[in-house]
Design goal:
The complex is a heterodimer of chains A (469) and B (91). Chain A is built from 19 helices and no strands. Chain A is mainly alpha-helical and 469 residues long. In chain A, helix 3 (48-68) packs parallel to helix 5 and helix 10 (229-260) crosses helix 16 (384-396). Classes of the chains: A mainly alpha (469), B mainly alpha (91). Chain A binds chain B through residues 5-7, 9, 12-13, 16-17, 20, 182-183, 185-187, 189, 191, 195, 260, 408, 439, 442-443, 446-447, 450-452, 454-456, 458-460, and chain B through 4, 7-8, 10, 12-14, 16-17, 19-28, 30-31, 34-35, 38-39, 42, 74-75, 78-79, 82, 86, 88, 90-91.
């Protein structure tokens, strides 16, 4: 079930009413929200629900066991078995066939003909997000940062809660479970913030991201040799705007919906294309993933505590695995590697999230933005070969000044770019004004925006980019 | 120490939930009235079964009502204007 659809609107209308009606019976309400979330997930494929349930139940039991065991080698073994179990689920569904293909290719290169069977299971939607939520829970329990909950419902709820289930934001167990032990407070609903996030998200996804994708980016990336260098350059910028508008739209809507139901999610984007360094970019882009990787992978590997060389190795490993997390393909690995190299180089040069001190801010911005855009080509392309072909044609294409971009796509790009550069406090001010507005205005604003989105919407809504992860 | 009931009874707490509910449901109702054909189109995409057929009949009746009172006119006119300005075509 996609957010910008009629079935989701009906689903949410029911869930909103029932969950608040059950609010004084917290456990019943959570049971209802778990059932609703499983129903939401089952819209993709009923059998995926089993993966979700078994993973949640196993991690619930594992956390209870870890909570009761005394520190020592046995507890460490149980913990690592749990981590391996979670990664095995991810590995079987998402990476097994990739590694089998690589093994067959490698053996074939040295003259050995291997016959290793492929599983071809299909990847359950959002299995990577599901695994990260589960891992964050058992790692925090193992490190005694949180006490394992004895409530199975709380864990089922934490892992499956439908606003974040499919594409994040990645919510930490300790932040979310603290909200589930009490009834939701109507006083915590931030209506202005929620409405603006939801209608803004719908606009970014349905209008900006969709038109950029279907009217320009898809064609340019499908057959780069048929386009001019200018088209390829614009296609690269356009994809940067598209992926931001697509992904940030999903998490904005998720945060808004969760807030209407009385739950708080963390911020996931902070105008990432304003970044003055790659380090800065990762503090603004998919914040919940980058902070997850920092806390549970980079720091666990030793972070910067084990010397200079090891710090660079840890940075590279973290970003390589971050790339691989997005998909079992070399172009994702290379995308992660390029970001890892950039982070290591910035560290070597003493460049922080504030940007380099020796060059003007505008130059730092230009370098960072173009680095990010070029690496997006590896992210967007179907394969490493396609990405290299794209960049090769961009650098040495024939007709530079002709473009197939329409004025409509250019307008969408402009609108997408504007989201990066308006002052951050405008959103808070707009939300506060909305909250002070009379009731008819409160209704008129979301109605008018959604109405206009429907008037200008393309025929079908493609899935969000991050659903595949 | 404040109890859960105290927190839910904070001044404005009930009003905020009531306001939120009104905004959510009135907005959805107005959208259903203004763009009823979208419900019919969406339901036509689903595999036919008893529940879908019943919902489709309801949506068609609603679309008919909306058309009779002219509530769907702004959407139809807006859509035509959008298509003519952008040169796009309906799928």
């Amino acid at each position: 079930m996609l957010f910008p659809t009629i079935e989701f609107a009906v689903f949410f209308a029911v869930v909103f009413a029932v969950s608040w009606a059950l609010n004084s019976h917290n456990t019943t309400k959570k049971c209802f929200l778990v059932a609703a979330s499983y129903f939401f997930y089952a819209f993709w494929k009923l059998s995926y629900v089993l993966v979700l349930f078994l993973s949640s139940t196993a991690n619930y039991a594992l956390a209870l066991l870890l909570g009761r065991m005394a520190d020592g080698p046995l507890r460490r073994i149980v913990f690592w078995l749990g981590v391996a179990g979670n990664l095995a689920v991810l590995g079987v569904f998402k990476y097994y066939d990739f590694f089998v293909a690589q093994t067959i290719n490698a053996l074939s290169a040295v003259g050995i003909k291997a016959s290793i069977p492929f599983l071809e299971l299909g990847i359950p939607v959002a299995i990577s997000f599901l695994t990260f939520h589960a891992l964050s829970y058992i790692i925090d329990v193992y490190n005694r940062r949180i006490t394992p909950t004895t409530s199975l419902v709380d864990i089922l709820f934490y892992i499956s809660f439908f606003p974040h289930l499919v594409a994040g934001p990645i919510v930490r167990a300790r932040d979310f479970l603290a909200q589930t032990v009490r009834n939701s407070r109507p006083a915590d609903i931030r209506l202005g913030e929620s409405v603006l996030l939801i209608v803004g998200g719908l606009f970014k996804k349905v209008i900006v991201a969709n038109y950029i994708s279907t009217d320009f980016v898809d064609g340019v990336f499908a057959n780069p040799i048929a386009y001019s260098s200018l088209d390829l350059l614009l296609g690269m910028y356009a994809y940067a705007i598209q992926i931001y508008c697509d992904f940030s739209a999903y998490t904005d809507i998720a945060i808004g919906i969760a807030c209407l139901l009385g739950y708080r999610f963390p911020q996931n984007f902070n105008q990432p294309y304003r970044a003055l360094s790659v380090t800065d970019f990762w503090r603004r882009w998919h914040i919940t993933l980058s902070s997850w990787l920092r806390d549970y992978l980079y720091i666990a590997l030793g972070g910067n505590r084990k010397g200079r060389a090891r710090t660079y190795v840890n940075l590279m490993l973290t970003m390589l695995l971050g790339g691989l997390w997005h998909g079992a393909s070399w172009h994702f690995v290379l995308w992660g590697a390029l970001h890892g190299i950039a982070l290591a180089v910035e560290r070597l040069l003493g460049i922080t999230a504030d940007g380099p001190r020796r060059i003007p801010a505008v130059l730092a911005w230009l370098i960072t933005f173009h680095f990010v855009c070029i690496t997006w080509v590896f992210f967007r392309a179907d394969s490493l070969e396609s990405a290299l072909m794209y960049l090769g044609n961009l650098a040495g294409g024939d007709v530079f000044w002709s473009t197939t971009m329409t004025w409509w796509v250019a307008l969408m790009l402009l609108l997408g770019a504007v989201t990066q550069f308006w002052p951050g406090h405008w959103f808070d001010a707009a939300a506060a004004r909305y909250d002070r507005a009379p009731l008819p205005v409160k209704i008129a604003i979301p109605f008018a925006v959604i109405f206009l989105v429907a008037v200008a919407a393309p025929g079908g809504i493609p899935p969000f980019i991050y659903f595949q992860f | 120490m404040a109890t859960e009931r105290d927190l839910n009874d904070l001044p404005g707490s009930g009003l905020r939930l009531r306001t939120t509910a009104i905004v959510v449901y009135v907005t959805l109702a107005l959208l259903a009235l203004a763009i009823p054909q979208s419900m019919v189109n969406r339901l036509n995409d689903f595999t036919p079964n008893a529940a879908r057929d019943a919902a489709l009949s309801l949506a068609q009746a609603f679309a008919g009502l909306s058309h009779r009172i002219g509530a769907d006119w702004p959407y139809q006119a807006g859509r035509r204007l959008f298509l003519s300005v952008t040169g796009k075509q309906d799928d």
